[in-house]
């Protein structure tokens, strides 16, 4: 299938309820919004593919393109690994203008693959196309196929050059690479009726490790977590699992649907953010496993575990409920977090004054509408000046967002907490919920805010009374006279 046909097929995803509701002509147009100049600042398709595949920790990730496309792969998006560190190393063919003109791209790619395999002996090499190599027409697949035959190591081509679309499209193209070249290529000898796959979980700040022990207590085994802390052979044998749980449908819904079509693996979308959503995810996993042949006693064990964990976590959350009840939160994120974090915070009495729906599917937006009961609290995107006005006006007690908007909150002298991929604290599962609430409490009640909101010393008149510069005419006049005198003295010295 050509790249153009592959992209168009991803835009017509039949597992998406929105696409199913369209007529045939509307489906052909796809569901992607056209990119505007500069839109790559939010991430191109290459970036999206790298995000999905790089957390496969024992694989070598080779970028076929100019040096700048590789950038810095260290701690990609805060994903964590419990073992191999090869995924953190940077490999690139470092194409130059001379290589492009002289047609040396394919030779450099083959040589780079050989050097990586000889030096590191990885179980596989993932090779990523970039804008330059896609435009000059390097026979990407042929080189990967030849190298795989020659060195006896799987070499997986990833067709996601940046110009084909957005970061989200790159996520889906990475899933296609796994389907075409990895999943189903290895037959594990320890298959059991309790095997599950977790799709779209990136193990940010190690948060999947907060959930995995719960599954193990129930006797479930995670055959593959794609991609968080994954191993190549685990993903290659993922087709033997009995159930798939989809954590981020905007990224890998096509992967879940096609695994169901090819291997009959049922899937559902769930969340591990918040007490109720974590409990519901465990119930769904247990129910589907029983339907697929696991013992019915699993359902009882699941309910017992949920009751124990919920009682324990609510005891830990009770002190925070009293301190945070009624606090107002502005959530400026997107995707699955736009509704899953809303549900989690509402459980402790926090008021959500707004949540961004950027990068959210129509299904995500429907969940937000059901949770908030007011569409006015959901916004697709808010300009920085509007965010600042909202925070400076005291309409929110804290903003939860990514690092790019933290300075808006800090300028408005409002507490801020990182909820996106750069964070250093895990928020998934029961204990993750406690950690998220604890971090919000620490941020809101940090004494630094009282200090930064206090008037500056130069805003205090001699008598100690607080004077607002804009409102105290005498103070403003004195300041102007003092500035004029100082300026005159300086000019005289010159």
Automatic annotation (TrEMBL):
Nitrogenase/oxidoreductase component domain mapped to chain residues: 44-442
SUPFAM superfamilies on file: Helical backbone' metal receptor
The keyword Glycoprotein appears for this protein: no
GO molecular function, one term: nitrogenase activity
UniProt KW Chaperone keyword: no
Keywords recorded for this protein, A-Z: Nitrogen fixation
GO BP terms, alphabetized: protein-containing complex assembly
CDD domains cross-referenced by the UniProt entry: Nitrogenase_NifE_I (cd01968)
InterPro entries: Nase/OxRdtase_comp1, Nase_comp1_CS, NifE, NifE-like
Metabolic or biological pathway: Cofactor biosynthesis; Fe-Mo cofactor biosynthesis
Function: This protein may play a role in the biosynthesis of the prosthetic group of nitrogenase (FeMo cofactor).
Family listed: Belongs to the NifD/NifK/NifE/NifN family.
Protein name per UniProt: Nitrogenase iron-molybdenum cofactor biosynthesis protein NifE
Organism expressing this protein natively: Roseiarcus fermentans
């Amino acid at each position: 299938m050509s790249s153009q046909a592959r992209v168009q097929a991803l835009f017509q995803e039949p597992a998406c309820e929105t696409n199913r509701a369209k007529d045939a002509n509307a489906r052909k147009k796809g569901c992607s919004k056209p990119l505007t100049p500069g839109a790559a600042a939010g991430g191109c398709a290459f970036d999206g593919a790298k995000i999905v595949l790089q957390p496969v920790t024992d694989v070598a990730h080779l970028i076929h393109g100019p040096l700048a496309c590789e950038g810095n792969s260290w701690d990609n998006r805060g994903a964590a690994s419990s073992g191999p560190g090869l995924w953190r190393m940077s490999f690139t063919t470092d194409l130059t203008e001379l290589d492009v003109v002289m047609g040396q791209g394919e030779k450099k790619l083959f040589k780079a693959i050989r050097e990586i395999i000889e030096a590191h002996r990885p179980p596989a090499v993932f090779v990523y196309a970039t804008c330059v190599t896609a435009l000059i027409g390097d026979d990407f697949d042929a080189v990967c196929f030849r190298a795989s035959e020659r060195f006896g190591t799987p070499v997986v081509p990833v067709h996601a050059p940046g110009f084909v679309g957005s970061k989200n499209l790159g996520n889906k193209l990475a899933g296609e690479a796994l389907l075409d070249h990895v999943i189903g290529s290895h037959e594990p000898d320890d298959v059991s009726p309790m095997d599950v796959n977790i799709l779209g979980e990136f193990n940010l700040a190690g948060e999947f490790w907060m959930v995995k022990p719960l599954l193990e207590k129930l006797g479930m085994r995670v055959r593959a977590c794609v991609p968080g802390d994954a191993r190549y052979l685990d993903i290659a044998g993922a087709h033997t699992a009995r159930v798939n749980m989809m954590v981020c449908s905007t990224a890998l819904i096509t992967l879940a649907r096609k695994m169901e079509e090819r291997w009959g693996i049922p899937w559902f979308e769930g969340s591990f953010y918040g007490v109720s959503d974590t409990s519901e995810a465990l119930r769904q996993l247990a129910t589907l496993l029983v339907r697929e042949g696991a013992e019915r006693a699993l359902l009882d064990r699941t309910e017992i575990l949920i009751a124990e964990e919920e009682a324990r976590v609510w005891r830990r959350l009770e002190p925070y409920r009293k301190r945070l009840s009624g606090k107002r939160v502005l959530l400026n994120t997107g995707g699955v977090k736009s509704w899953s974090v809303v549900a989690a915070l509402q459980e402790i009495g926090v008021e959500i004054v707004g949540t961004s729906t950027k990068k959210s599917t129509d299904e995500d937006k429907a969940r937000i509408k059901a949770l908030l009961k007011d569409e006015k609290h959901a916004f697709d995107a808010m300009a920085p000046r509007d965010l600042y006005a909202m925070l400076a006006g005291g309409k929110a007690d804290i903003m939860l967002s990514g690092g790019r908007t933290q300075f808006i909150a800090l300028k408005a002298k409002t507490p801020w907490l990182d909820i996106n991929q750069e964070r250093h604290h895990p928020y998934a599962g029961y204990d993750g919920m406690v950690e998220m609430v604890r971090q919000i409490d620490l941020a809101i009640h940090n004494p630094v805010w009282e200090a930064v909101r206090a008037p500056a010393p130069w805003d205090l008149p001699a008598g100690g009374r607080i004077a607002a510069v804009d409102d105290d005419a005498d103070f403003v006049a004195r300041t102007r006279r003092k500035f004029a005198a100082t300026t005159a003295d300086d000019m005289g010295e010159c």
